[in-house]
């Protein structure tokens, strides 16, 4: 018992510490999820020991997720195609399922079963690079005069008159409109925003006093302070200045100039999923808003979203951040409109949890770089038509005069939200979104992109619900009635003509997309809504499975029962990807407040080219909204597997993808132009359609009958059915109790911990572990054949200290690994197991439930012989993976900051 307590106490130490430094040169890092509530499962202690890994720490703020590591083999192991930890786990799985023929085998099998039952997620962490764009060279903006405002507030900051987004002398209708809020004495006091970016210059005299060190961290270099170190690390500082530059006679001032800003540095080098996940939850009880001006490449070709751990972190922030009111995630919509990019092809910006912000310029025009889509919520001011955003720059006393892009629009929204939260700290993440919808102001009313919604509001793919008006927003926030908790209705999935998308990443069946397109209907009834506890509609997600030889030719739109149409995916001429839409989830905010009862019609069209055709295989929807009965609501949990058609029925302690699932080993080509150099110069527009006009003829009969007949949707398991979640919740509560109990126990058991380690080390050297190690074919995978003997346990518990022996040697920001890891990663047999079972009955469900792969595109053209590109929760098969390993150095998934 003492041992158990001591172990728990040590876990708490792990969880409470700031993230430890990594040494990617010497170790492989993994994230595993250990379910402590499985009665027949293994303890974390046993899991760690059996996998022969060191426990490093909790994975950020993710309950039950642990970072573990294993020293890399010393010798050259080219040709070694298996990852030791993953293959060990595979061995355990095989062991657990094998029939028992002898006593000792039975012991092995029992341990293997316990471990396998407790661990339902295990993935190798690979470094990925998010690349920033160099800022464009531009001419300095002309100076305006805002002397009245400066005098009224005693503003002596020399660049204030040029900050037209605060006071626009030329076009007074176009500014963030916050001076009226300052008049009320509201300047963001007590609110913390976190800039998830390339660092924050806390030595800047314009930011020093508003810098929040506690909630800052450098995940690129694993240091406490987010020092901008690279020559182009000025982006985070500039965005921070827009929010919280002090009113102190230096440069200009921020919208919420008495609020605090933290810097979380992730864009200046390669980072792993687990670090990105930790970054998005860093300090999430004290930080209110996460300002994110980055995402997948805006090249009009990619279709990517956050991996499992990152999605998990976002939902963790929503469910548990800010004392349960939810972290506010603000994402820039992207700068790729000139490349035909749309924010519904970016899984960060089309998340229901993001407030997605596009840009308008100082004349209120749509800048040509700003991406449209049905997930756009609002616009805020940024560069275009000859003006830029003027803000603090890196350096002690520096100003930036060329800032812009949607990158700069997002922090302007963050500043306004900070003002509102000072007045109403109780607003939940959804209240903030409601306030956006309700208070955004229509601009360019004559722009044909505006369309009426069912509620009488106007919506535009370019402007969302309109421009964020700081005054209107904060005034409305003051007297806002909090919305009821969230509820959702997840529909059954419609399969067209027996369409399937399997673990082999192959599409089968489906309806051919004829000239004029194809449509499929789904009926939502009052009863379904009542059963799901949904009272009123907010976001909708539409997930589609479409196979097509050239993805960019596909157009997807949905029409509500009330006749409101959302274009979910417009044609993208640059996207010739042949992997289709393997369960891609689109999002629309256009149906906010609409009555969802009746028939929803999904339309899929293509350009009707003879040599690039496709099939529509299936779709489903999630209708998100407010609850009828708040006492019956539950919180959403990210499912582990969700791209198969038909989807796996996912329990809330879900089935697991293969190990290594989230660890892509590929590298996208560097997007050559993200934010164009002339982003501030080119005159905006207010008369062009958001998407290219369809080539398909609307009049052609739609091949809908068979599709609609095939399945009648029924309400899916949502609220009431998700009992698994409650068990989760209770385990969460339990572990929180444990946290406090154990925290108290730390001091009492400090000595116990020491004794424990001493005893444990001694014990581990004894027969137990080595015996296991040496037995059975499954166990050989543990590595005896490689190391030539029983593995040492020396390192197993080193990691409990803040810094373990080898932590202090070079943590690396350069990407060195992958050759070896890739070759291991790409080895087959990384199937995974459904480990959430409560008993010893093994289930092989969804073993290699999905396969992940992504590969570099060369010149935007894909060789026909290459297997389809797709993202899903899976591991590559050896054949599939080989092309990917061409990219033999740098990480994989280049992210790009939206400068
Ligand atoms: C800006 O705020 C003022 C109050 O300070 C308000 O009267 C006005 O309608 C708002 N909008 C614009 C475009 O000025
Ligand atoms: C959060 O705020 C509380 C109270 O202001 C403070 O005690 C605590 O140290 C803060 N935590 C972090 C991580 O900043
Ligand atoms: C779908 O598959 C089932 C069973 O395999 C078959 O009976 C049915 O006819 C198929 N439906 C269509 C539309 O092909
Ligand atoms: C679809 O495209 C393929 C490949 O170009 C072609 O062989 C096939 O005939 C096309 N099918 C139809 C119905 O056009």
UniProtKB/TrEMBL annotation:
Region Disordered: start-end pairs: 655-716, 802-899
Location relative to the cell: Membrane
Membrane-traversing stretches: 738-758
Compositional bias ranges of the Polar residues kind: 814-825, 886-899
Biased composition (Low complexity): 701-716
Highest taxon listed in the record's lineage: Eukaryota
One GO location term (cellular component): Golgi membrane
Database matches in Pfam families: P_proprotein (PF01483), Peptidase_S8 (PF00082)
Signal peptide: 1-17
Amino acid composition bias (Acidic residues), ranges on this chain: 803-812
Keyword terms, alphabetized: Calcium, Glycoprotein, Hydrolase, Membrane, Protease, Serine protease, Signal, Transmembrane, Transmembrane helix, Zymogen
Active site: 197, 235, 407
SUPFAM superfamilies reported in the protein's UniProt record: Galactose-binding domain-like, Subtilisin-like
GO biological process: peptide pheromone maturation; protein processing
One MF annotation (Gene Ontology) recorded for this entry: serine-type endopeptidase activity
Keyword Calcium: yes
Record-linked InterPro entries: Galactose-bd-like_sf (IPR008979), Kexin/furin (IPR034182), P_dom (IPR002884), Peptidase_S8/S53_dom (IPR000209), Peptidase_S8/S53_dom_sf (IPR036852), Peptidase_S8_His-AS (IPR022398), Peptidase_S8_Ser-AS (IPR023828), Peptidase_S8_subtilisin-rel (IPR015500)
P/Homo B domain boundaries: 483-629
Family membership noted in the UniProt record: Belongs to the peptidase S8 family. Furin subfamily.
PANTHER family, sorted: NEUROENDOCRINE CONVERTASE 1, PROPROTEIN CONVERTASE SUBTILISIN/KEXIN-RELATED
Name by which UniProt lists this protein: P/Homo B domain-containing protein
């Amino acid at each position: 018992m003492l041992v158990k307590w001591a172990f728990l106490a040590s876990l708490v130490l792990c969880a409470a510490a700031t993230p430890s430094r990594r040494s990617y040169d010497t170790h492989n890092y993994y994230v595993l999820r250990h379910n402590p509530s499985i009665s027949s499962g293994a303890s974390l202690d046993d899991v760690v020991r059996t996998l022969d890994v060191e426990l490093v720490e909790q994975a950020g703020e993710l309950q039950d997720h642990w970072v573990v590591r294993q020293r890399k083999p010393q010798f050259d192991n080219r040709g070694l195609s298996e990852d030791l930890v993953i293959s060990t786990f595979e061995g355990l799985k095989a062991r657990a399922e094998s029939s028992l023929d002898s006593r000792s085998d039975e012991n092995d099998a029992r341990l293997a079963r316990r471990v396998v039952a407790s661990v339902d997620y295990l993935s190798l962490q690979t470094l990925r690079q998010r690349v920033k764009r160099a800022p464009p060279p531009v001419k300095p903006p002309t100076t305006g005069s805002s002397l009245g405002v400066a005098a009224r507030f005693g503003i002596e900051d020399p660049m204030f008159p040029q900050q037209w987004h605060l006071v626009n002398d030329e076009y007074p209708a176009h500014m963030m409109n916050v001076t009226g809020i300052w008049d009320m004495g509201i300047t963001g006091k007590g609110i913390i925003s976190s800039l998830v970016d390339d660092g924050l210059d806390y030595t800047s005299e314009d930011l020093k006093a508003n810098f929040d060190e506690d909630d800052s961290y450098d995940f690129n270099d694993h240091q406490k302070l987010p020092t901008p170190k690279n020559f182009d690390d000025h982006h985070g500082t500039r965005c921070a200045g827009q929010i919280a530059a002090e009113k102190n006679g230096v440069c200009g001032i921020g919208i919420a100039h008495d609020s605090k800003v933290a810097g979380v540095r992730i864009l200046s080098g390669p980072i792993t999923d687990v670090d990105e996940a930790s970054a998005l939850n860093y300090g999430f009880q004290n930080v209110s808003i996460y300002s994110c001006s980055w995402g997948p490449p805006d090249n009009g070709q990619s279709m990517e979203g956050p991996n499992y751990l990152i999605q998990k972190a976002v939902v963790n922030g929503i469910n548990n951040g800010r004392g349960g009111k939810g972290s506010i995630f603000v994402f820039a919509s992207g700068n790729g409109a000139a490349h035909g990019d749309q924010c519904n092809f970016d899984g960060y910006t089309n998340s229901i949890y993001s407030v997605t912000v596009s840009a308008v310029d100082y004349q209120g025009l749509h800048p040509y770089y700003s991406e449209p889509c049905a997930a756009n919520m609002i616009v805020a001011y940024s560069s275009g038509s000859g003006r830029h955003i003027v803000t603090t720059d890196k350096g002690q006393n520096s100003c930036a005069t060329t800032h812009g892009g949607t990158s700069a629009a997002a922090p302007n929204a963050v500043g306004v939200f900070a003002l509102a939260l000072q007045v109403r700290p109780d607003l939940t993440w959804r209240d903030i979104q409601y306030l956006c919808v309700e208070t955004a102001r229509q601009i360019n009313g004559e722009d044909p992109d505006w369309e009426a919604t069912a509620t009488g509001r106007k919506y535009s793919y370019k402007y969302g619900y309109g421009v964020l008006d700081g005054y209107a927003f904060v005034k409305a926030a003051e007297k806002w009635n909090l919305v009821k908790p969230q509820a959702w209705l997840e529909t059954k999935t419609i399969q067209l003509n027996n369409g399937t998308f399997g673990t082999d990443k192959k599409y089968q069946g489906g309806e051919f997309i004829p000239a004029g397109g194809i449509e499929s209907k789904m009926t939502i009834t009052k009863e379904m809504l009542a059963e799901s506890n949904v009272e009123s509609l907010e976001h909708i997600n539409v997930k589609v499975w479409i196979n097509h030889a050239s993805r960019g030719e596909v157009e997807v739109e949905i029409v509500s029962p009330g006749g409101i149409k959302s274009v979910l995916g417009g044609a993208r001429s640059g996207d010739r990807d042949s992997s289709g839409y393997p369960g891609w989830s689109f999002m629309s905010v256009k149906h906010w407040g609409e009555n969802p009862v009746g028939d929803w019609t999904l339309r899929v069209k293509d350009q009707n080219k003879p040599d690039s055709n496709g099939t529509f295989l299936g779709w489903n929807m999630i209708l998100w909204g407010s609850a009828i009965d708040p006492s019956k609501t539950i919180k959403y949990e990210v499912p582990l597997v969700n791209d198969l058609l038909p989807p796996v029925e996912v329990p809330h302690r879900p089935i697991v993808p293969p190990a290594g699932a989230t660890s892509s080993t590929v590298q996208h080509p560097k997007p050559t132009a993200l934010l164009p150099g002339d982003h501030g110069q080119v005159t905006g527009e207010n008369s062009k359609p958001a998407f290219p006009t369809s080539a398909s003829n609307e009049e052609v009969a739609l091949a809908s009958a068979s599709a609609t007949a095939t399945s009648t949707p029924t309400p899916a398991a949502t609220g009431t059915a998700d009992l698994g979640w409650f068990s989760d919740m209770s385990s969460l509560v339990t572990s929180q109790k444990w946290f406090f109990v154990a925290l108290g126990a730390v001091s009492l058991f400090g000595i116990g911990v020491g004794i424990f380690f001493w005893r444990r080390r001694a014990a581990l050297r004894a027969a137990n572990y080595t015996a296991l190690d040496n037995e059975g074919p499954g166990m050989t995978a543990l590595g005896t054949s490689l190391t030539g003997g029983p593995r040492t346990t020396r390192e197993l518990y080193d990691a409990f200290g803040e810094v373990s022996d080898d932590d202090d040697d070079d943590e690396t920001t350069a990407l060195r690994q992958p050759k070896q890891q890739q070759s291991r990663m790409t080895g087959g047999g990384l199937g995974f197991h459904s480990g959430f079972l409560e008993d010893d009955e093994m289930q092989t469900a969804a073993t290699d439930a999905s396969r992940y792969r992504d590969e570099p595109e060369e010149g935007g053209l894909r060789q026909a012989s290459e297997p389809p590109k797709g993202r899903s929760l899976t591991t590559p098969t050896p054949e599939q993976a080989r092309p990917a390993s061409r990219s033999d150095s740098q990480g994989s998934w280049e992210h790009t900051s939206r400068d």
